[in-house]
Amino acid sequence: DFNIKMPLATNNPMDIEEQLPDVIYIELKAAADGSLLEIYADNGIIDATFSDPQTRFDELTKFVEESLAGEADPSTAVETEVEFDIYPELKYKYTVKAIESVSGTINEDGTINKLIESIKFKDNSQG
């Protein structure tokens, strides 16, 4: 299942620019032992760093929710993407937890509150 959105044909460059997705950049920083040191998030307007091991993933979810709150009508809003920049030394379980944190939440009544559906990863290969 792919989320691909192509710009509409137009003669006005501003129309195409307005259809490009907003991106939330998230950097997962690793400690020397591969554990998660901190999470840095930037939505282009504000940025934040989450380093408390007990709350950092909840704080990341809240950051994404607040970043999306500005979109009045979700059906007409531009789709927001998340781009992860993950330190190569980071243990995989932290990447999975971060993806879960930005994807959505499960409400008390069992309904799902979707947040981000389009996720990409920065290429950190050394060539």
Q: What are the SSEs and their pairings?
A:
Blueprint: H1 13-18, E1 22-30, E2 36-42, E3 47-50, H2 56-68, E4 80-86, H3 92-103, E5 104-106, E6 112-114, E7 118-121
Parallel strand pairs: 1-4, 4-7
Antiparallel strand pairs: 1-2, 2-3, 5-6
Helix pairs in contact: 2-3
Describe this structure in words.
Strands 3-2-1-4-7 form a 5-stranded mixed beta sheet, covered by helices on one side. Helix 2 (56-68) runs parallel beside helix 3 (92-103). Strand 1 and strand 2 form a beta hairpin. Residues 14-20 and 73-77 have low confidence and may be disordered. The chain is built from 3 helices and 7 strands, in the order αβββαβαβββ. The chain is an alpha/beta fold. 24% of the residues lie in helices and 29% in strands. It has helices at 13-18, 56-68, 92-103, and strands at residues 22-30, 36-42, 47-50, 80-86, 104-106, 112-114, 118-121.
Keywords:
127 residues; alpha/beta; five-stranded mixed sheet; two-stranded antiparallel sheet
Structural class: alpha/beta
Total strand segments:
7
Percent of residues in beta strands: 25-35%
Helix percentage:
10-25%
Q: H/E element string? A: HEEEHEHEEE
Gyration radius, rounded: 16 Å
N/C terminus separation: 29 Å
Shape: globular
Number of helices: 3
Strand order of the largest sheet: 3-2-1-4-7
Mean pLDDT: 82
Q: Give the uncertain stretches in residue-range form.
A: 14-20, 73-77
Main β-sheet description = 5 strands, mixed
